[in-house]
Amino acid sequence: MKKFKPYLCLSKKDDSYELSFAVCCKSDQTIESIVQHKVEYNKKDYWGVIVTLSNQTQLVNSPQNPIYSSVVKIDPKNSLDFSTIKCIVMQSSIDDLLQPTQTEASDIDFSDS
């Protein structure tokens, strides 16, 4: 599994879409936040699910490359304005000024649900 690259699965429920994702991280990282909003990526608009990883909170005795997964509910109204969901994994670090952050992304079409 490639580090920081989100692996996606989208399902349609009666009242929402559910985006399931899994992401492999560094051993000192956990999920800091998950937010949703419109994003522009390579000059195209997407409905964005942004997962931020951080080393500010750490797990004790974590595996070398932990894999985190979660499910995010997405309002079906977003499928009217956007054809694709872009899941972006960003990193936040207490050392942000000393090292560049890595960002990875994957996308999935609403029609794939």
Would you give an account of this structure?
- The chain has 113 residues and is mainly β.
- 4% of the residues lie in helices and 53% in strands.
- The chain is built from one helix and seven strands.
- A four-stranded mixed beta sheet has the order 3-4-6-7, with no helix packed on it.
- Strand 1 and strand 2 form a beta hairpin.
- It starts with 6 loop residues before the first strand and ends with a strand.
- The mean pLDDT is 85.
Q: What portion of the residues fall into strands of 2 or more residues?
A: over 45%
Helix-strand pattern: EEEEEHEE
Our count of helices gives 1
The separation of the N and C termini measures 23 Å
Count of beta strands: 7
Strand order of the largest sheet: 3-4-6-7
Which secondary-structure class do the elements indicate?
Answer: mainly beta
Write the layout of secondary structure elements.
Elements: E1 7-12, E2 17-24, E3 30-41, E4 44-54, E5 67-74, H1 78-81, E6 84-92, E7 104-109
Parallel strand pairs: 4-6
Antiparallel strand pairs: 1-2, 2-5, 3-4, 6-7
